[in-house]
Write a structure and sequence with these properties.
Shape: globular
Strand content: 35-45%
Distance between the termini: 44 Å
Number of helices: 2
Number of strands: 7
Length: 133
């Protein structure tokens, strides 16, 4: 990946391929050829919500996140998970990267948006299966 625009095109394609979802908000900000920010608010047909926020810089074609937050909540607005790199948990071995699940905070490295979307889809599939049984 050579430019931030190429990164944004990749993310747009991922979002467009998501079933049963629509963007309530989609903002890209290109600050330079290799630096930008992204803010996405995706609503799913069951009213679940995924918010994505990234400040990113490409160095030698590789993405590096200055800050990120991937926040997923269920249809009743309960937190399912949030990944972020806010430096408020210095006790975590992957500091500043970590994951919130409910009230728990755990060590976790930075996931890709693809990984986050797969985790969201897995959660939604489990919730559908549980509601049908």
């Amino acid at each position: 990946m050579k430019t931030i625009e190429e990164y944004f095109i990749h993310i747009r394609q991922l979002i467009q391929g998501l079933p049963e979802s629509f963007p309530e908000r989609y903002e890209e900000q290109i600050l330079s050829v290799t630096r930008g920010s992204l803010r996405i608010r995706l609503r799913f047909s069951d009213e679940a919500l995924l918010e994505i926020s990234e400040a990113i810089v490409l160095t030698a074609g590789e993405p590096h996140w200055l800050s990120y937050r991937y926040h997923y909540q269920d249809p009743s607005a309960g937190l399912v998970f949030r990944y972020d790199n806010a430096p408020h948990h210095p006790e975590i071995s992957t500091h500043p990267d970590h994951k919130h699940e409910g009230d728990r905070v755990q060590a976790n490295s930075h996931p890709s948006i693809e990984q986050v979307l797969l985790e969201v889809e897995a959660f939604r599939n489990r919730a559908r299966a549980e509601s049908q049984s």
